[in-house]
Amino acid sequence: MAIFHTSIVLILVSIILISISPSSIAHKLTDTEIKHLCSKTRNPEGCYKILKSDHRTANIDAKGLAQVSLDLASERARKIQAQLNAFAKATHDSRLRNVYESCSKKYDDIVHDLEAAKKNLRSKNVPIRVKDASEENKSCEKVLDGASTSDRTYLQKKIQDVKFMLTIVKVMWDNLNKK
To answer: Are 115 and 74 in contact (CB under 8 A)?
Structure first.
C-alpha cells in the first residue's frame, strides 16, 4: 500500500513538472527593466509606450519582448507597404508610380527579413537581417527624398517609424543574446 501511494505521488509530481513550460520559468521583465532597455534607443519614452501598447508585454520575458518588437516592426512595414501600393495604384504619374513600387518592393524585403529573424531569435543572422531591413528602409527614404509628391511628408514619417522600430528590435535582440 505504501508503494502504491509513493508511486501516485511520484506520478503527480512528474505530471506537474512536465506541465510547467520553459516560458513560465523564464524571468519576467519588469516595467523598470523594459524602460532600461528602451533607454538604449533615441526615444526611450516612445519605445516604452510602443512596447507597452501591446497587451503581450504585460507578463513577458526577454525572448517574448524580442518577438513582440519584431511583430510590431513587421506590422509597421506591412502598413507602409500597403500605403505605397495604394499610392502607386492611384497616381497617373509613371515616374512617381515607379518610386512607389520600388519602395513597396523594399518593404516586402523588410517584412521578409523580419519574418526570417522571428523564426530563430537566437540566430547570429538576426542582426544581419535587421541591418538589411534598415538599409532597405534607408534606400526607400532616399528615393522618396528625390520625388516630388504631396505624400512625401506622410511617407517620411512612416519610414522614420519603421527605422525606430528596427532600432527597438536590435536593442531587444542584443538584450536577449547578451549572455
So the answer is: yes
Q: What average pLDDT score do residues 92-96 get?
A: 91
**Whole-angstrom Cα distance, residue 148 to residue 131?**
28
Q: Which of 51, 55, 57, 56 shows the shortest CA–CA distance to 72?
A: 51
Contacts of 172 by beta carbon, 8 Å cutoff, 6+ apart: 37, 62, 65, 66, 69
DSSP-derived secondary structure for 139-168: HHHHHHHTS--TTHHHHHHHHHHHHHHHHH
Query: Which stretches within 30-93 are classed as H helix?
Result: 31-38, 44-52, 62-90
> Can you tell me which residue has the cell 515616374?
95
CA distance 163 to 126: 16
pTM for this model (two decimals): 0.81
Say if residues 74 and 127 touch (Cβ distance below 8 Å).
no
